[in-house]
Amino acid sequence: MFLTLCPSSLDFRANKSKLNRMTHNGAKNPKIVFRLSHMGDVALTTGVLSHWQEVHCDTFIFITRSGNAPLLERHPAVQDVITLDDAILKGKAWLKEAPRLASLYQGHTLLDLHGTLRSRILSFFWKGEVKRYPKFGLERRLYDRTHAEVFRKRLEATTVPQRYAMAYGEKPAQAERLVPRIYLSEFEKDDAALRLQHLTGDRPLVAIHPYATHPAKQWPRAHWKALTGLLASADMDWIIVGRDKEPLIPGHDHDLTNKTDLRETCALLSQADLLVTADSGPMHLASGVDTPSLAMFGPTAKVWGFYPAGPLDRVLEKDLNCRPCSLHGGKPCEKGYECLAGITPEEVLENVAEMLKR
Questions:
Q1: How far apart are CA 247 and CA 251, in angstroms?
Q2: What pTM does this model have?
Q3: What is the pLDDT of residues 257-282, one digit of tens each?
């Protein structure tokens, strides 16, 4: 068995002169990754980058929105992060910025992991090889309309990280090998442990993320509140993480809503034994710090490829003919969001207890 040893990219910074020196010395040019949003989608690329570095000794410069940059800090495969704000991504501004980026990184391979009009414009101007991942857009639309078994099987054959990995034109690794990887410092983890010291004891710690971008993906707030009581009665500690206009339990010292930035949230999740969430970005953050997730899926489903794929992760869902009803959970529901509302706090507690035993 042969092991390929790759130099850590932490020794490099992605200024142009150093990139040229690396090329002249025979080292590989870093590849340019383009994925703007959302936070969870960027998180899903991190395990793929680690895999590509381990297998191919590749390193990367990542182009994304400013808010996603913290996810890539300390990543050994990432040499640099280029952040773009909304103003530069619009209309004529992007038509000027895209050729500038193409000229700046002339000769580098572009990995388009977004597959949008913006990334196509960048590809048009790119002065080098362009690789894309299969979005299975046609299959997704056909399955959304028909729920035909042939499309379900094709889509469920790969997770989104596996599809990203297919940009290299190779058969993707197993899903468990491509789960997100978020690299925290010891200081960040110690700081999170200290922050929780006065909140929790020696009991199991369950992190709760009760928020969602779309109402259809929101487990009822009354259910979340009931769950906190059930966890306490079952001799389990809990904390609430995430961001929302209205915290779940305002003023409660265990409710840390809006009190942490992205990396602090990841550090808190690293201290938890388990995360309970709906289909959300923090579900992928937990995977990135090796914390199992119990994820409730309602209007979305595993068929879209965004489900957690760690060995101890679990998806809780109802078998309803109307599921999935949308890709991101943005459609209104005539059934009162039965797919999520029908999952009881008691069911969640039972699954939490089973997962903690494992």
A1: 9
A2: 0.91
A3: 999 999 999 999 999 999 999 999 99
